[in-house]
Every structure is written in structure tokens, then in C-alpha cells.
Write a structure and sequence with these properties.
2 copies of one chain form a homodimer.
Chain A (H helix, E strand, L loop, with lengths): L15 H20 L3 E2 L5 E3 H4 L4 H7 L2 E3 L2 H5 L8 H4 E5 L4 H10 L8 E10 L11 E10 L4 H17 L4 E7 H10 L6 H9 L1 H15 L4 H11 L5 H12 L3 H20 L4 E4 L10 E10 L8 E6 L13 E6 L1 H10 L13 E3 L4 H16 L4 E3 L6 H10 L4 E3 L3 H6 L1 E6 L5 E5 L3 H9 L1
Parallel strand pairs in A: 1-5, 7-8, 12-13, 12-14
Antiparallel strand pairs in A: 2-4, 3-4, 5-6, 6-11, 7-9, 9-10, 10-11, 14-15, 15-16
């Protein structure tokens, strides 16, 4: 009996249409990365388990896909003994960050630092599949490592701004700084409560000032501390004004002041660069508090309800675990699947993406086909995407094919056209029809491009 | 202790330079596929083991990478019981053909047939790594399924011709036909000896006519049969003449005559299409004799010693195992790694591939950087790839960076330039230096493009 074809849960096939749309997103992002001098790298889908294990927390270790040692090794395993190293020594890429760190350390002598790289590859997680969450999905990361300058943060903001301008999506770029959060925790005497404070700030819109204050107190902050934070909780005005307000209470924290210096420098750069998206300070951004050490970024679509579509930040010791300490880096990751949903939802994919084929020559028999072949070849030589319907069958079937593939032009060359050395062309959208000499490529192309 | 970073044997990292070179190959191939109306698809890296098992022979089953069921399932497995289905139900893609067949059957109602698809994705094999053989490598397949017309074979020949013309590599395209081989075996009364006969023909250049005849006899053919094959063994002349010679002895085999009809039709098409590569009939092509049913293709570089760099053929029942019988298809696969080696060996990669960055602005301090930021942004807006060195450090270090990344232009804007509103530019290859007004983007770009 034939097998019923299926794919593993949480994975996807991408057909013609989706590939065209996904390539449009990736090509747009890539074109922007290029103008900033980022180089593409690719790493293997399989990494040594020793590279992956322990890098994503206990939960992450569970979500890693492990690959069985190949055939022979597997056959000889004594399954009563400890399994793991004997059975598995490789796992599938879980994200692009750990492989990037491994790459930087392994190739440190070939790399020019600061190293600006981007990477667009699939990753795998043994997560429970659900709407919008897959077991295989692409990540699209851009990072620069080996430089502490805020110029790098600026460039990432510029890249985000440019990508979404090109994709015609209005976004809000939110920026926080881990050092400022540390500073807030320090000035109220609770340097250990960074996360609690940030999480409480995040609830301000939902539960209001009084409830946030209460939540902070319930986490162990005293009234005086919470009072000190009040100007931050009610932070308003321009980004400059927000920084000034924070400065007024931050004097007690050296780290906090450095964070404000960073924010101030970055916003100065942003102003001189001329960004078209809204960029705003948002102290409630709690992304990656465990590993980000400076800037924290999050990007939201202004006109579409969905979570963050891009995010990242600065980290100070990504490569330490592989033996290369003190490498500061900063990067962001574009969420391809969510960006896809935003473009679908806002109907922002360009119209031309659906079909790559511009003209279909119908198949009217073997003599007519022999006549068409050199014409088709000449048009392809001029960059036109041409199909010759391979089989001589009913025209209805050939029309259907053009329709299903959304091919905009059809040419039917029968005996008369062959005898006269002509090419007949029809615009399937407008119905307009015209006949050209078979050597009049310019005329034909002009008609196709109208 | 820090882990020493490494990757699994047989896998590779691709850095900036290799990615640029590999993308050049893939982009070239893709651009040709596009003009023939082939659509890109992608399938998951993981397929159900039931999809993969038994499709690549016993050896293939051993070379499949199996993925352990995820974390929790693994923990509860009773390893004394039968292992396979409990521990593993997914495996890594082994080639692109089986996933393509699975895709066609699974999505048959969404697909417009004949279905022309291409697919460029990595595959994995638990093979012994050696020079030129990897455990992870890209395949680049183009197929059309659902049409028996020789127009499809023609298009694949045109595609191969165009790809290697664009890559500036002279190739010889060799064509065989399984039905002709069947015919040869039939006319000498040994329809079961197709492989033996083909393998013997393949040795003609090496061991000579007499030895080939002897080999055939040692495989059980009698002298009369071998005598009947002699005109084929000494086949010469143009492709047309070769076909005529074969026709003269093939009358006894209906299948053989059909094969010759196919070859004749295909070569007629090829002649009218105008192919610049050498295309020749080669009866010794023994590729895929187990599954190809019509045309067999193999492509060799004319000026570089390496195995076949592209190959394929027609198959008649690819999708049968998944429940969709009678779908004839034909396709070829480009060997990306070998093509890479050919281009390296013949020094055919374009000069401009090495660096994507066109100009580096040196970092002379924060005031100068603030001055540069909008200029860099404006140049990027015009499509120029620009880097601003992020850190204010010794010029020597910044020069080294430009050198290592092979950035052709450097701009050093110090206090004088800032005060005068100028941009100084240096061509690092020629040493030529020029100064422009900071608003003279046209002048700057013209200098960069010279």
C-alpha cells in the first residue's frame, strides 16, 4: 500500500508562492545588510552536542534535537550502559547565536574584527507546535562583535528602519539599556531586583501607577525606594527629556550613569542619521535581561497586532564559554515568520511576486513548437521568463495552466503565424492582443513590459 | 575550562569569501531557472523516517541521519524493547528527490502540472568524510514532473548550457537514453544484461574494442550478439549519423526504436534552439540505470579534470510509492561543490566578489563621526555599501581592517574636512585621492565606480 505522505509536526513545506514571498523578505533584509558591510556566513545544521548543551538552560537542553550516531555505531551500542555520549554526539542548530559564537572563536585568526556578520538559516526546537510556533523555522540574525562603540547600535537601528521602510511597514523601535535598569535597582538599594522592577514597570499601562508601586513593594522594595523610582514610572516627553529626568535621579549609580551616557550618545547619533521610524526609550523592555549588558532593542509593527517582530541587544561575553573572553557584541534578529504575517495581514507583498513566468507559448504541435523554440530562447536571452507548454494538448488545459500560475501573457502561434513569421501575443489580464514579426524582440518585450 | 570549538566531521563553516562565491554560483543558476519558469520550493530538513526509509537502498538506510525523539520521550524509553520507532521517527533529508516526490503527492491539488520546480537546500549523509565528500552538502535540483514531452529535456539542456556559459566554463553535455540501452540488450537476446553491456561500452576508450567484446562474452553474450553490437561499439560521426547507425540495427526492438525517436526529437530541438556547449550522444553513460527510464544526462567540464558536475535523467514512477502513479518527470542536479572547485581551479570567480563593502569611513573621533553619519546614510540610500569604523583607534588598525576586508576606498575626514564641509576619498588600489563637497553625492559615487 502506498504511504500517505506527511511531514513531521511543526515543520512546513514552502511552495512557489510562499517561497517568492519569503525570498522577498529575506532579499530585502539582505540588501540592507549589504549596504552596511555585513558579510554572510553559514554554519552546519549539525553541531557537536558539546557546543550546544548547557547554552540554552535546562529547558533548552530538553528542546534540542539530538542526532543518533550513524548506522553502524547505532547497531553496536550497548543500551544498558549510559546512553547519551554513545548514541548521540551531534544535535541540530537551536539558534544562530551559539553557532556564531563558536564560529568566531574557531575562526578568530581568519576574521577581521570588528566582525560584522549576518546569517539566515533554519533552526530546530523540539517545542510543542502551535499557531505561529514551529519546530523548524528560519532565523535572520545580524551582529557585530569586537567593538563597544554605540555606532554599532546606531547602525542596527538604521538597518531596522531601512528594512521596514522598504517593506512598507510602519514600526516603532523601542530601546532600553540594561545598565540603566541596573542603575534603577541600585539607587533604590536593591541591585538584585532588576527583573522585578522591570517587570513591574512593564505593567504600568495595564494596571496603573498605584498598582505598580504596590507590586514593587510586594517584591520587597520599601516606600522610599519606590518613591525614588516615581519620576521614572511617570517618564514622559521626548527621548532627550526622558534621559534628563533619569539623570536627575541616577547620580548614585555609576553603572546607571554609564547607561544614560550610552543612551544619550545613541540618540544623538540617531538624530543626525535621520531615521524615519519612531524610536523611543522604553524602560519596560525586559527582553534578555539575563545576557544583555547594554542596549536592548524591540521592534513592533505600528499598524498590526502581533508581538515583537525584531529584537536584540548588546552582550559582553558571548564567546567566553569557547575560550575567547572580553568580546563585546551587539545584534538583532528579524522574526521572519511574524514579518511574513504582518505583510500578509497588511497586504504589503508586491503584486508581481505571484508568478515568475512572464509569457507562456501554447503548444500547437511539433512544427509550431520547433518554430517557437528559438524565439523563446531569444527572449530568455533578454532576461524574460518564458515557458513553452511542453505537451500538445487541448488549449483549455494550457489556458488553465497559465491561469493557475498567474502567467500574464499567452502566445498562440498556429500554422498561419508560422507561415507568416509572426508571433501573436495576448495580455491575459486586459485581453489586448497584438501580432509581431518573430524577429521584433524589442516590440515583443515592450508589449510584455507595458 | 573553555571548550575547544569544533564542528562535526564532514561538515563545514562558510565564511564571508566562500559564501560570496557560493552565492554567485547559486544566484547564477537561480537566474537561469527563473527564465524557464521554474518555481522554488523548500521542504523541511526533517522528514518522517517512513518517508525516507527504503528509498535509497540498504546502504542508504544506513547513511540516514536519525533524529532522537525529543527530550521527554527519550527519557521514558525502555531501551530493552525494540528501539527504532520508539526512539526515532524523524530523519534528516538525504537528497532532494524523495522529499520532492513526497511534496508532489502531498500537495497535488495545489500544484499546476506540469510542475516545474527547483530546490537548493542542504542534505545530510552519514558517509565517511573524505576529500570532496561531506556529511552535509547542498544539492541544487531542477525537475519538471507531469509531462513526457522532449521539450522538457531540451529545456534542461538549455539551462545547463546557459548556466555554464554565464559561469564561463566550457562543458560537454553527454546524453544517453535508457530505452536505447534496453534496445541494445534486446536485439542481442539478453534483455537482462543492460548494465553489463553499458559498463562494457564505457571501457572502450580504456581497453579497446577487442577487450570490450571479450568482456561482453565473459558476461554471457554469444559471439553473434556481440557482432550485432559492433556498429554501436564503433559509433562515430555527428549525433545524427550516430542515431542513423543505431537505427540500422535496432529494428528488432520496439523500446529501442522509441528511445531513438526520443533522441532524434531531442537533438532536433537542440539544433533549433542554438546551444553553445558541445552536446553529444554517449551510450556509455551508466548513471542511474536503476531508475532512469528515458534520457540520461551527464555534464563534464571541458578544461578541468573532475568527475561529472551536473547530471540527471527521466524517471517514470517517482511518486508511485507515495500513491500517485504514472507521473513521468525529468530533472538534473547541479553539483555545487564540484562546480565550486572548477571555478576555483580555472580562476573564474569574478574579481568583485571578495568584498561587499565599497567604502570605509575612518573613525577620527566623535565630532568627525557625527559629521560622517548622515553622509554614510545618504550613500547607503543610493545603494553604496558603506562602513563607518565604529571605534576611534589608531589609523593603522583601521587601515588593516580595510585591507583584510579588501575594501577598495577609504575616507579620512578630520577636523579640516569637517570645518570645510568636505569629504576626502582615497582609492586604496591606485592611491588616487580626491576631495568632494559633502553634498556632492554624484561626484563621490562617480569616483567610487571608476
Amino acid at each position: 500500500m502506498a504511504q500517505k505522505p506527511s511531514i513531521p509536526k511543526g515543520t512546513r513545506d514552502f511552495g512557489q508562492q510562499e517561497m517568492a514571498e519569503r525570498n522577498y523578505i529575506f532579499d530585502t533584509i539582505r540588501s540592507v545588510f549589504r549596504t552596511y558591510g555585513y558579510s554572510q556566513i553559514e554554519t552546519p545544521a549539525m553541531e557537536n552536542l558539546s557546543t550546544l548543551m548547557g547554552k540554552y538552560g535546562e529547558e533548552g537542553d530538553k528542546l534540542l534535537y539530538r542526532i543518533l550516531n550513524s548506522g553502524d555505531a547505532f547497531a553496536e551500542v550497548d543500551f544498558d550502559k549510559a546512553l547519551a555520549p554513545q548514541v548521540c554526539e551531534k544535535g541540530l542548530r537551536y539558534d544562530l547565536t551559539v553557532p556564531f559564537a563558536r564560529f568566531v572563536v574557531q575562526h578568530q585568526n581568519e576574521i577581521a574584527f570588528p566582525f560584522k556578520r549576518y546569517q539566515i538559516q533554519p533552526v530546530w526546537r523540539a517545542d510543542r507546535p502551535q499557531k505561529g510556533r514551529y519546530r523548524e523555522f528560519y532565523q535572520c540574525d545580524v551582529d557585530v562583535i569586537g567593538s563597544k562603540s554605540q555606532i554599532n547600535e546606531l547602525e542596527l537601528v538604521q538597518i531596522v528602519d531601512k528594512v521596514f521602510t522598504l517593506l512598507d511597514v510602519n514600526v516603532i523601535i523601542k530601546i532600553n539599556n540594561r545598565k540603566v535598569l541596573t542603575g534603577l535597582a541600585e539607587i533604590c538599594g536593591h541591585p538584585d531586583k532588576v527583573v522585578d522592577i522591570t517587570v513591574a514597570i512593564d505593567k504600568l499601562d495595564k494596571i496603573g501607577l498605584q498598582a505598580v508601586k504596590e507590586e514593587m513593594m510586594s517584591k520587597g522594595l520599601d516606600e522610599k525606594s519606590v518613591g525614588m523610582l516615581e519620576p521614572v514610572l511617570t517618564l514622559s516627553g521626548s527621548n532627550k527629556e526622558k534621559i534628563a529626568t533619569m539623570r536627575s535621579i541616577m547620580a548614585g549609580s555609576e553603572t546607571g550613569m554609564r547607561g544614560l551616557d550610552e543612551l544619550e550618545e545613541l540618540f544623538g547619533f540617531i538624530e543626525s542619521a535621520g531615521i524615519s521610524s519612531t524610536v523611543e526609550i522604553d524602560l519596560s523592555l525586559a527582553r534578555g535581561l539575563n545576557y544583555y549588558t547594554g542596549a536592548i532593542f524591540e521592534v513592533k509593527a505600528a499598524d498590526f497586532q502581533i508581538g515583537s517582530i525584531c529584537g536584540g541587544g548588546r552582550y559582553d561575553n558571548l564567546t567566553g564559554i569557547f575560550g575567547l573572553p572580553d568580546m563585546s557584541g551587539v545584534g538583532v534578529s528579524f522574526g521572519a515568520d511574524r514579518i511574513y504575517d504582518v505583510l500578509k495581514g497588511l497586504d504589503k507583498f508586491p503584486a508581481g511576486l505571484r508568478s515568475s513566468t512572464e509569457i507562456l507559448f501554447a503548444n500547437m504541435g511539433s512544427d509550431e513548437t520547433a518554430y517557437i523554440i528559438p524565439i523563446a530562447a531569444a527572449l530568455r536571452g533578454r532576461g524574460i521568463a518564458v515557458e513553452v507548454y511542453p505537451d500538445s494538448c487541448k488549449l483549455k488545459k494550457q489556458f488553465d495552466y497559465a491561469d493557475r500560475k498567474a502567467i500574464p501573457f499567452l502566445s498562440i502561434c498556429g500554422g498561419d503565424e508560422v507561415a507568416a513569421g509572426k508571433v501573436q501575443l495576448k495580455n491575459l489580464n486586459s485581453g489586448v492582443q497584438e501580432t509581431f514579426s518573430k524577429d521584433d524582440l524589442d516590440g515583443i518585450i515592450c508589449f510584455l513590459k507595458k
